[in-house]
Amino acid sequence: MFSPKLSVQGRTVAICLEESDSPSTFIEQHLMEAGMKVKRMTPVAHDELMALCQALPHAAILGFGLALARSSLDLESALEVMPPPMRTMMALLSRVLVNPPEVYWDIQLENDQANHQRSALAEGMERLMKNVRDQDYDEFRNDLQGISNTLGTRLSSGAVDCQHVFSLLN
């Protein structure tokens, strides 16, 4: 799901069915008539995918917010020099905070696969901390290359997407 503050036009919604070759349902027809795209998947596939697409980024955003709240620096003075990545993270955090906390709590609590993604996020942070602590630039560079390889063809389009977002913040 996605925030009701966003347009549904062109958005994809998951329909959970045990068998993907089932006949089209009334709800699928209704969603498509409303301008949405429908993606069929099993409940298990849905939970795995939503843990990756919802629980992981929300956990990263919430972790950023918790770190920000613990900072002794004055946020107002940071606003004057805030680069686009920080402004983007602040925007994402603000979006989470203006919505009901129950939404994000349910995403973290109710999906059995979410814990796996939170653990992977924590392990990634531990890896970064170790690389910096050990002053291991080669391992840091190798990790970035591994991430680039994982993104594959999505890397270029993601960089373009980011450029568009950053240009909106100027």
Automatic annotation (TrEMBL):
SUPFAM superfamilies xrefs: 6-phosphogluconate dehydrogenase C-terminal domain-like
GO BP field: tyrosine biosynthetic process
Keyword terms: Oxidoreductase
Gene from which the chain derives: tyrA
InterPro entries in the record: 6-PGluconate_DH-like_C_sf, PDH_C, Preph/Arog_dehydrog
Species, as recorded: Pseudomonas fluorescens
Example GO molecular function: NAD+ binding
Name under which the protein is recorded: T-protein
Domain Prephenate dehydrogenase dimerization: start-end pairs: 43-144
